[in-house]
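FAQ
Q: What does a multi-component entry look like?
A: The components come first, one per line:
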Amino acid sequence: MSQTQKGNAVIGQSGGPTVVINQSLVGVIQEARKVGHIGRLLGSRFGVRGIVSEDFQELNDVPVELLERIAQTPAAALGSTRDKPDAAYCEKIFASFAKNNVRYFFYIGGNDSADTARIVSELAKKSGYDLAVFHIPKTIDNDLLVHDHTPGYGSAARYVASAVLGDNFDNRSLPGVKIDIIMGRNAGFLTAAAALARRNEADGPHLIYVPESPLTEDKLLADVEAVYAKHGRCLICASEGIMAPDGKTWTEKLSSGLEADSHGNQQLSGTGTLGDSLAELIKTKLGAKMNKKLRVRADTLGYPQRSFPGFASPVDAAEARLVGRTAVQLSATGARGGSIAMRRTSSSPYAIETFLTPLESVARLTKHMPAEFLDGGNNVTPAFIRYARPLIGDLPVVGSFDELKAT
Amino acid sequence: MSQTQKGNAVIGQSGGPTVVINQSLVGVIQEARKVGHIGRLLGSRFGVRGIVSEDFQELNDVPVELLERIAQTPAAALGSTRDKPDAAYCEKIFASFAKNNVRYFFYIGGNDSADTARIVSELAKKSGYDLAVFHIPKTIDNDLLVHDHTPGYGSAARYVASAVLGDNFDNRSLPGVKIDIIMGRNAGFLTAAAALARRNEADGPHLIYVPESPLTEDKLLADVEAVYAKHGRCLICASEGIMAPDGKTWTEKLSSGLEADSHGNQQLSGTGTLGDSLAELIKTKLGAKMNKKLRVRADTLGYPQRSFPGFASPVDAAEARLVGRTAVQLSATGARGGSIAMRRTSSSPYAIETFLTPLESVARLTKHMPAEFLDGGNNVTPAFIRYARPLIGDLPVVGSFDELKAT
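Then the predicted structure of the entire assembly, as tokens:
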């Protein structure tokens, strides 16, 4: 293929931020420069929106020094979107692709973004437009089917485990009940990562609640009471998506109960709602039962989970770069598209390999925590710890006077 | 003084955690070993409580390797308390001190802890008990009078500036209004530190609200609207203690307004309340005015500000160690007590020296942000940036495609 015949490529980023999403972007840019089969490499601003509006960032000549800084920067450097294109939207995308001779489309995102990639790919085939579409995985939720795990998860898990590690010492120094609400509407992987903070049996988190294990008010209160009786304190980590046995989320239940408040609006749909409500529940019900002033606090860990800088998991950062490079390598060998997945080839020492899986195998679908990772409705198993530990890197070094007793 | 005549010492930790409070503890232990004028060095568990119950951790022989790990560990390694001793409580403290031949008392904490130290010191004098009492400063609020700044602040400020740095990129990639609620009930130093995240005029935080500058609903809404019109997004950092012009905190106002809700309880007194309420206010009032679906989110940064591990400011960690060592050195030279303060001897390059200030000059009192640090009720001045920048260490490296335009 001569230089003038080279197809151009568009790369876009989509969905919620991670701290390594730009590692994948830079992986694509680096590999495209190395392989040389792509003509112009265009960064689409704000996901698919930038394709339609032809709002492109030229990526062929960005200095390496800047790229390496961008790779370490949280959140989509090109901008993101939650747009999901329909057929009419796709027509506009193809018009832009045709006009700019775009033959490769790389889309970095989660299962919604994989679905966008699938729609674009299928409509391209139908309309006879020659286009290779690659989904490059990214989600802190770790909820993509087929994928052993997803770039973005390891760093978010590292943040969560570290925050909870610190919070465990905070809770030791001023004992009480502490609740940390952790991201994950449908899958509990990120909340479960809090378990990596434990060094021994007395350490928190003492209770871990994920959406996969339905939780009743009675169980929560009984759990907290038992832990408090044993340790004189209790550190709880709960997913924002924890469910009641009827399949409704706790947040839905709390919100619907509060629609009838004096303000007539859904004020409790904000981010602190669930944590505050759990704190109030425990304070009221257990405080009364235990006949004392129970110290109960709640934090909702919030956006730092997905965008705290300078604290990425080195493994996660390297893998995010790798899947970006792999997508470009595959595009050069004639592959027509798919999602770049990782497979664990060895647990000890930890090792992975990449492979291509059809977009349909990932799009829209949500992977939940398997039963082998869940224990008793309030904990995770050693199998989960073995699964997650290699993904987060070393946690901060800590120490305690308790170690003197242990020896 | 012969070995048998050496007085013993008690060290305790008090108040809310910081990530460097154990640096001060280890500084005391190290210096006591070096100087040798102290007999037994006893760590009081859970502040003054451990003195009364004689719950002591022997510190003379703790291995250095463990001490260095404890120094890097967030929150009081000896345990903390919010107890404030009265005369009767102090009687029990002296009984314990006398029984254990304690002649030096080191207390690490904020202005409440300085007040405890003052009370103990004064009652010791009155009762003719020979006791040197040293307050070793620690507070993320940075609100001690006389002190240029306090150990614990630099690391909390580093966390806040970093979280907001990441959140700014998050907000760029998915534009909208984002509110971050930052610790600081009475003083705005920690919230103000968010300004250190800015690299240029377009960067957030675009609005900074501190307790020292009263804030009306009208001003908040006008500010947000103006920023949104200019940047298409708005990142707000507000102290948990922001005040209305009548001197009441916003949280008080919101809570009192909500006591009348359908549940009949103060459910909005939890930690996410203020952020959620501000988000609701902006969404309702501005969303209607701007005639579109305004994306508004709120995070309450919570305990990670005071206990996130592995991310301390190196300057802060070194200074926390230094004030601990200085307290012991002064105790060896015959000083009878006081609070160990820092004075800035040079701004460029940054340099400090320690000095002793009377307990009364620090106890109970709160330092507020001076007028020269405040700008227009929604920002901080370059003078504040110059003051705070040297305290937090280097922020994480980041980069943006915008830099290409700038050159």
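Q: Is there any commentary attached?
A: Sometimes. For this entry: Chain A has two domains: 3-152+310-361, 157-306+371-393.
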